[in-house]
Task: structure prediction
Amino acid sequence: MRWTKTLRLRLRSLFLSGRVEQELGEELQYHLEHLVDDFVAAGMSPEEARYAARREMGAIDQSKEECRDARGVALVDSIRQDLTYALRALRKSPGFTAVAILSLALGIGANTAIFTLWNGVLRAPLSGVRNPEELVMLSNPGDAGSWSGRTDGPRSWLTYGEFEQMRDHVEAFSGVMASQSSLSTWQVRFEDGAWEEASGRFVSGGFFDVLGVGAAIGRVFTAAGDRTDTPHVVISHTYWQRRFGGRSDVLGKTVTIGKAAMTIIGVAARGFIGETSGQQPDLWLPLRMQPSALPGQDRLHDTPPQKIMWLHVFGRLKPDRTPAQAGAQANAVFQAGLESFYGAAASGERRRQLLDQRLVISPGSRGASTTRREFSQSLTALLAAVGVVLLIACANLANLLLARGAARKPEIALRLSLGASRGRVIRQLVTESLTLAAAGGAAAIAVASMLHPALVRMVATSHEDFRMSFELDPLVLTFLVSATVAAALLFGALPAWQATKTDAGASLREQSRGAIGSFRQMRSGRLLVSLQLALSLPLLVGAGLLARTVYNLQRADLGFPAERLLLVRVDLREAGSETRRESLRRELLDEIRQIPGVRAASFSQLGIFSGGESSATIEVEGYVPKGDRDRGSALDVIGPGYFSTLGVPISLGRDILESDRAGTPAVCVINEAFAKQFFNGRNPIGMRITPVFDDERTAYHVVGVTGNARTQALRGNVGPRYFVPAPQRPSSATLPTFLIRTATDAAPAIAVVRKTVHRVDAALPILLATTIEEQMAPLTAQDRTTAQLAMVFGCVALALAAIGLYGVLSYGVARRTGEIAIRIALGAQAGRVISMILGETIGLVSAGLLVGGGLAYAVSRLIDSRLYGVAPQDPLTLAMATGLLLLVALSAAFLPAQRASRLDPMAALRQQ
Amino acid sequence: MSKPTDLVQGTLDLLILRVLALEPMHGLAIAQRIRQMSREQLRVGQSALYPALHKLEQQGWIEAEWGPSENNRRAKYYKLTAHGRKAVKTETAEWERLSAAISLIVKPI
Result:
């Protein structure tokens, strides 16, 4: 077989290269000796014959090289050679090598770390899930209807009834599953052990089946779980390892969760964390068990028209179905469902509004994520920033290599004149760069794994349940390798090109005379420095904008003083009847107000910056809605003295009082945004506001108008909100957050308040007890970390650019010693020499600034939505960044300039 | 001494194959045979010969073995393989087609 023979030959050439080389030598030697014999036979003397034969043979080494090429393994072979040579060359200049590897390790490492996070948060498909690309997520992103849930971004939840419709009637799906959108922390107890905490969520029977996840041991839920109440629990693999040490006797154990006793039936397959990226639940419970685990709040049945939207719903497409087909089918089913759900509950215009809901089908391969939307911009911006830092580092290395190339010119010229082709020498130099980059890349893994926990903490500051480990998954590895190779080519190609771009003879001669070097080479260096400066500017501007954002956020005017305020949330859901809850709220408030040092206290159902929201569709007396968008308002249910406690000014009318009780006329207070939108100049006092969907249609009379207080979101405009007294909206203040204004620092009072609450009723769970400062810290944490990182990257970029500039100018001054010496000899003053060098610097810098300004403009648009209280094109920030850059550049230039001005012309010229 | 640049690219391979079709021989003999057969018109230097031989060996058209030479030294003898023999035919036909085409253009002047 021909190919086996050929393969054998190649392998022989590769692995028995010594033998092959020797044979080649012998073959050529034979040729030579035979020629000598022939010449001797023709009558020449042996010496003459030898000489003639040599001449006839020509360059033997060159043909050896060509034979190696012909054998096809020369490439592998010469790469090995290049590598050996590169290692030797790098060992010879340890300083250069260390600097290069270190800066590459930092650059590539930072990139890899941020890419890992970016990949994990934004890109990675759900782990452990079969064919994730077949999954789609169903959401209802409109705002029609009356509903409850969180409000960060478009709502992505469905009700239990809607899930059932999707599961049973959409033909395009091979399966549909639902899971509780928020991860809950449960009080759990195994057998007779102590109470402990575990995180978990309710999921439908088909949850594991639809995701294609099996059990590591035991079994998982089946579709049957949606038909009957099965008190079963499946635990996650990590929880099994962590809590039970991976023992198999965990199966069959009884666990009490909330009010329900359940049995552990299985452990989910290793690596599976569920349908929400960044969250790692410990256990999963059947949805049908929700009412028994949490008695008193049945989320499986909705009372029209109030919908409880709380489920993430995913469908798996049949292989031959498109998302569009599934979407059409799902919406047909959904519409029919809405019609029968609202039934006769509404009519006419309101009915039309209610039915105006549409399901949206989106790709579900990456699962749901609470972090994705929030972090996508910051992470993308940071990724861009570290990318730029790496570019600048590469430019610096390129500059170093340019200088190194210039120093090695004689060596390279020698190799070229000895017959090495230019391509061959370039390959050699690029191999050196690749070797450097590979070392840097390897070190980068260590850097990335060190940076990773810090970055995860940054994400976790606002998401306590966010967990992610550092793993070199294929995509991250691909990124690392490509970043490394790209870096090597970026910093290695140009210097290699430059270093070999030479006429061998000229360079050898030039070397011996030490004349002024070619300006082309200088030009590349200068170009690189301009580029570095250009790239630094957007980083500095971005960092500046983010820093000002944080500054503004921390000093944002909330409309009330955000200090000396305690927030204590108490769970009254299981305290008994509404009458009992009402008396508990009163009693708690009375007791808290008695505590020494407490100035005032009140409560609100929503609390302050709790991340929750509630809204209602309303009718406002004398107001004709212009469209669908202006029928709703945020609302809160509050206790007496709410506004005076917070310190929100009342501009008209009065606060909610103790006397606003169940039997008295229903009242409400509105904020100025509400007044502006719905009354627009009319006197709101005495007007009626009627929530459309409450059980009883109560009309609330406006008794007061207050300032616009920021109680939920730091960013964006304060929208219309109305406030009703708790006793007048029954069953709405079940989780009141007590707001306690203290005379001095609030933190020490926490313990006293806890004790007071438990004195009133020892069984009341306290869900939160914290100061306003602590409550608000997570709101700016992400911005703060982003700004800090941007600052660090900006400074690193600036420092690198400054080093680059310094290097190029020093090198330029050294090369131009002769010229400068002549200028000085001809009478140029020191000041003139300095200004000449600084003038050149200004040229370089302004070219960089011009390009950088354009880049900065583009960058600032990228982070537009992260900014607060500062315009993306803020002139002050731009001016400060430019000024800083100019200052650093001139300082970097000053040393070489000064050195030039102090040249002793005679000494310098003699040296030449 | 250098490559016979006036040879059309690839013809050297054909010449080597033709010569080796006569009998197995070593490198120098191949060069000398080409010279003789072309009546001293074509001189192939070692710098072109050996890379061509190694390439042909890699292609599987010729194979080599060491054997005693006419002056009793060890020499590397090349001979055609079955593939090589087929290649001689196709390459010859190709060459004839090409040279005929060239002479069509060159002749009339």
